[in-house]
Amino acid sequence: AQKVTQAQTEISVVEKEDVTLDCVYETRDTTYYLFWYKQPPSGELVFLIRRNSFDEQNEISGRYSWNFQKSTSSFNFTITASQVVDSAVYFCALSSSYKLIFGSGTRLLVRP
Amino acid sequence: DSGVTQTPKHLITATGQRVTLRCSPRSGDLSVYWYQQSLDQGLQFLIHYYNGEERAKGNILERFSAQQFPDLHSELNLSSLELGDSALYFCASSVAWGLGVNTEAFFGQGTRLTVV
Fold first, then answer.
1. What pLDDT was estimated at residue B2?
2. Is B37:B88 a contact under the CB 8 Å cutoff?
3. Which of A95, A98, A102 faces B55 most closely, judged by CB atoms?
4. By the CB < 8 Å criterion, does A42 face chain B?
5. pLDDT band, very low/low/confident/very high, at B98 (cuts 50, 70, 90)
6. How confident is the model at residue B5 (pLDDT cuts 50, 70, 90)?
7. Angle value at C-alpha A89, between A88 and A92, nearest 5 degrees
8. Which of A54, A94, A107, B108 would give a disulfide with A10, using CB separation of 3.0 to 4.6 Å?
9. Closest by Cβ to A44, choosing from B56, B99, B107
10. Which residues of chain A are within 8 Å of residue B45 when distances are taken between CB atoms?
11. pLDDT band for position B101 (50/70/90)?
């Protein structure tokens, strides 16, 4: 069975701090895809990144970076110099076909 | 803006009633997915349609059904509503049958259903 675990339920940081959101996944599939979505207070789910299981290169996009390690089945997300607008719930998700398996989410609060 | 449109944004209805949620996918996307987000269950996959045909079912109750029409918009019908059906219902779309190398799912803003 596939599973995604986001052990951090809630994280609170002060603006400009760096923060890392953890994601651990379980799957027996050799080909799979990992995703991060952001859910701001307004409620929509915003796609952030997709990573393929055969590509372990880390990725950086502005203040966001992602660290994918197959050896530990982890796909962690780091926000550098956090801002108040980063406050949201962040979901990690796994798919090997059509269905997204979501973690329970990490609520990030960035205080001014 | 993801390009996926869901209506209505909010819906309040009484137990036992029936409602229809509507979703217009992004232009060119053939797949539509429905998800339910509730406090106790989190984000759960309900059903997947591709080019008008049902492709997969997840944790969808028998009281719920869905369709995808020839113009590719989709409707999720919820009947005999119970208090526990109160949730945020998301529609997502993608260009291909599944999620893959160059395919991700884009979500609409959701319909918040409150059953009273």
1. 83
2. yes
3. A98
4. yes
5. confident
6. very high
7. 135
8. A107
9. B107
10. 99-101
11. low
**Predicted local distance difference test score (pLDDT) of residue A104:** 96
The answer to whether residues B58 and B44 touch, using CB atoms and an 8 Å cutoff, is yes
Q: Compute how many other C-beta atoms are within 10 angstroms of the C-beta atom of residue A18.
A: 12
Q: What is the 3-state secondary structure (H, E, C) of chain B?
A: CCCCEEECCEEEECCCCCEEEEEECCCCCCEEEEEEEECCCEEEEEEEEECCEEEEECCCCCCEEEEECCCCCEEEEECCCCHHHCEEEEEEEECCCCCCCCCCCEECCCEEEEEC
pLDDT at A99: 87
CB B78 within 8 A of CB B113: yes
